[in-house]
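seq:
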Amino acid sequence: MQKKLLLHICCGVCACHAIKLLESERYSVTGFFYNPNIHPYKEYLRRKKETEKIAKLYNIKIIEGNYELNRWKDSCDQFRQEKEGGKRCNLCFKLRLEKTYQLTQENNFDYFTSTLTISPHKNSQKIFQIGENIGGNQFLNIDFKKKDGFKKTIEQAKKLNLYRQNYCGCIYSLRDRKKKIEGRS
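struct:
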């Protein structure tokens, strides 16, 4: 019997490998697109569209959470001056994983996890710690970047002609990306 899993999806690109891996391990996957951090809203819609494209190609259901930018700001804004990877990111992970866990409970999923661990820019151990603190052993510690997972997801995204963003998603990562491009890092 397949176990029901709710997969928090940050974007379509990151979901490619994760969905295939989870299904190969006999999980019945439902995606959850909840990303109140993504800015501007036009970018949010673009990433949502790519996630829907993946859901259709992989034949999985996607649940869309509300776009709660003000909730995200209330949680993370105090650390707006930090570089990516610090306290702000941990609070952002926590916000999204709490919402994923809530949906896991409300809809009787056996497990939940997140595509966030596919990124080489994200600390998987920190994500695991946050996920376990929220959902105990219902959170699956899967580092999707292992065994060339990041490489595989990028290759698949290229084949599918998916839009691949060049920043994490929040207003502060966008700010830092622009500074880097302008040579002011």
